[in-house]
Design goal:
The structure is a single chain. By secondary structure, this protein is of the alpha/beta class. Helices cover 24% and strands 27% of the residues. The chain has 7 helices and 13 strands. The strands form 2 sheets. Strands 1-2-3-4-5-6-7 form a 7-stranded mixed β-sheet. Strand 11, helix 6 and strand 12 form a beta-alpha-beta unit. Helix 6 runs antiparallel to helix 7. The longest helix has 17 residues. Bound molecules: zinc ion (2 copies). The site of one zinc ion (ZN) has 9 residues, from helix 2.
Length: 233
């Protein structure tokens, strides 16, 4: 089963390619990042010295053997991004970290789309750590900055690691943006978010919630178009 968090026709363009592959990326870098492509959303594991952080707990926990998870971050509260949140946070005795405006998503099935995406209800998650725009999360001396980018959901965020690597959730994909027609979505908020993003001139590597890794300069090429499209809806 696949999430349909991308806008419809772009989703068709991307196709239902098989995302069940592992990409280990980071030779020579200070920090390793593993992208775990699942049937649901992309899941990212950042690790260093056997300590790890998960961004979007959508992946099977078996791949995490040997790494102690010290933080579990969600880019937003849709079920395909948090399908493993309950088991991971219980195993490592850590809260699920997400934006305050998406708390309702992990506590109310009608928002998180679990019946639509997973075909069943998602267990309510109460062990939460709430974040807001501008918050900074330390990871073994590395810095994860929270960028609040509402629109797809009110509490959608992107996580910026060391001002180099952007985990963009369902806000920005390689050639598209997140849908704005789900419960709690807001096209005007997305338009405002895109307005801010198109003015950011950075050389980030972008790890989206769905699809392939890209660069900020590549991703930005389509954002002006999507800005107009969202506004016209
Ligand atoms: Zn998604
Ligand atoms: Zn989503």
């Amino acid at each position: 089963m696949y999430c349909n968090c991308l806008l419809n026709f772009t989703y068709k363009t991307l196709g239902k390619s098989n995302f069940k592959r592992l990409v280990v990326w980071g030779g020579g870098l200070e920090l390793e990042i593993k992208s775990i492509y699942t049937n649901y959303a992309n899941s990212y594991l950042l690790w260093e010295e056997q300590m790890g952080i998960i961004i979007d707990p959508a992946s099977d926990i078996n791949v995490l053997q040997g790494v102690q998870i010290i933080n579990c971050l969600a880019t937003h509260g849709h079920a395909d991004h948090i399908v493993k949140a309950k088991s991971i946070t219980e195993k490592y005795k850590i809260p699920l970290t997400l934006h305050q405006e998406d708390v309702i998503y992990v506590q109310d099935d009608s928002y998180n789309l679990s019946k639509y995406i997973l075909g069943e209800s998602l267990s309510r998650i109460d062990n939460l750590q709430v974040i807001k725009d501008g918050d900074q999360i330390d990871f073994n001396g590395h810095n994860l900055r929270v960028l609040h980018t509402p629109g797809h959901t009110p509490g959608s965020v992107m996580y910026l690691l060391d001002d180099k690597y952007l985990f963009s959730g369902d806000t920005v994909f390689k050639d598209s943006i997140g849908r704005t027609d789900f419960p709690g979505s807001n096209p005007q908020q997305m338009a405002d978010t895109l307005e801010k993003l198109i003015n950011i001139d950075k050389d980030w590597v972008v790890y989206p919630g769905h699809g392939e890794v890209t660069t900020w300069s590549e991703a930005k090429k389509s954002l002006k178009y999507w800005r107009q499209f969202v506004n016209a809806r």
